[in-house]
Amino acid sequence: MATFRVSGEADVMEVVRAARESKRTLEIIGHGTKRGFGRPVECDDILDLSGLSGIVKYEPDEMIITARAGTPVAEIEATLAERNQRLGFEPPDWSSLLYAYYKPASMGGVLSADANGSAAIRYGRCRDHLLGFRAVNGFGEAYKGGAKVVKNVTGFDLPKLFCGAMGTLGPLTEVTLRVFPKPPVCVVFEITELTFPQAAPLLNRVWTSALGPTCLAYMPAVVARELPGLAENAILIRIEGSPTHLKEQGTLLRALMDGRSIGENEDGVAIIAALGNGMPFHCNSLGVWRLTIAPSRAADLIDELEPPIWFADWAGGLLWIGLKNKPPLHEVATRHRAHAVQIRPEGHAAASEVPFAPEHRVRAELTRRVKAAFDPLRLFNPGRMWEGV
User: Fold this and answer.
1) For the chain, is the Cβ count within 10 Å smaller at the N or the C terminus?
2) Which is nearest to 238 in space by CA: 178, 193, 191?
3) Coil, strand or helix: which one is 81?
4) DSSP letter at 72?
């Protein structure tokens, strides 16, 4: 097995063309933080994109940034912070969760894994922020998708297709992202002593109000024991804006809570970041799942599974669940009209055999056709999502 470390798009094209001629498959990696996410991949060689790093162009007034795919997320966030801007989908860092300690998450890897944080409830997921990209297809040809503008109606919406594709459609070489202003003040409100069924309608009430929160999470007692500074059985509500705006929002929040006691959590910002990074699961070997679900159905699913560790984000629309000695959750998720993805297999295994739900016959055929259009010889991460794709 050879490892090809590239420093430019031309290098990527050369490696892919050579792989095509020799019919050798390529495992696409950035800094390797997500190699444990997805099905096991047995490739002939490795295409290392970590050298494709650096910010190409940053236009603060236009609120867009273009960077090479291997650029560490932390580098992009630091650059944006200098101009009081940020990434709206709040990309998490799953390196410790996936036992890739001390490695920096790359922007290409975050997009390919469809990794989103708490703020996605307000600003949308990464697929809503990737405006354009450059990539290399299975013919060794460079091409671009989308455009470096927010309003783009030309051609197919390829950026959304690449978010969550796990590198199976080919290596990204450059990405252009929409960014947002960073509010001057952030407050995390906390309402405690609530069961999940009690908390769910309150979360929904805030979500559908004019508050515009950037986090709506529920923390059961078991998670509170893992995170210092977090009360048990509590709702966390993050509100951002100017001091005057926050004062008005605080008044509205109290009206929505029907007289319940509301406090401020001074550690709330750090706690929310830790939740997005999966910190409650760092010190155990449970299998870790993320499920997207209608918030009204979340409590029933938790009651059925009785997981040892879990918490809810996105007003109950995103469940993080840790399980031991359980079969894949896809059947359970389907019964509750949810979608389950296994982020980490149980017991420090290298990768999972069933991270993604089996596709319906019609959709599976469409997936194979899309894969064939970009990568007809199945050179890139074959089988990373489903067998034969």
Assistant:
1) N
2) 191
3) helix
4) B
User: What six digits make up the tokens of 320?
Assistant: 């993080």
Is 51 in contact with 6 (CB distance < 8 Å)?
yes
- Check residue 201 and give its pLDDT: 93
Count Cα neighbours of 39 within 13 Å in the Cβ-side half-sphere: 20
User: Sign of the CA dihedral 88, 211, 301, 264?
Assistant: positive
Residues in the chain: 389
- Rounded to two decimals, what is the model's pTM? 0.93
Whether the Cβ atoms of residue 216 and residue 314 lie closer than 8 Å to each other: yes
pLDDT in tens, 79-133: 999 999 999 999 999 999 999 988 999 999 999 999 999 999 999 999 999 999 9
Calpha distance 114→127 (Å, rounded): 8
Cα dist from 27 to 92, 167, 311, 360, whole Å: 23, 8, 33, 26
Its sign, for the CA torsion 45, 50, 52, 57, is positive
Distance CA 379, CA 375 (A): 7
**Tokens 């892919």 map to which residue?**
16
Nearest to 53 by CA among 130, 4, 108, 114: 108
Which residues are bridge partners to 322 per DSSP? 288, 309
Taking the C-alpha atoms of residue 228 and residue 215, their distance in angstroms, rounded to an integer, is 19
- What is the Cα–Cα distance from 389 to 372, expressed in whole angstroms? 9
Reported as a single tens digit per residue, the pLDDT across 216-237 is 999 999 998 888 888 889 999 9
Overall average pLDDT of the 45-72 stretch: 96
β-strand partners of 380: 26
* Beta strands per DSSP E along the chain: 3-5, 26-29, 45-48, 55-59, 64-68, 85-86, 130-136, 142-146, 172-178, 180-181, 185-191, 215-219, 234-241, 263-264, 287-292, 309-313, 318-323, 339-344
Token duo for residue 10: 């031309």
C-alpha torsion 21→25→31→35, nearest 10: 170
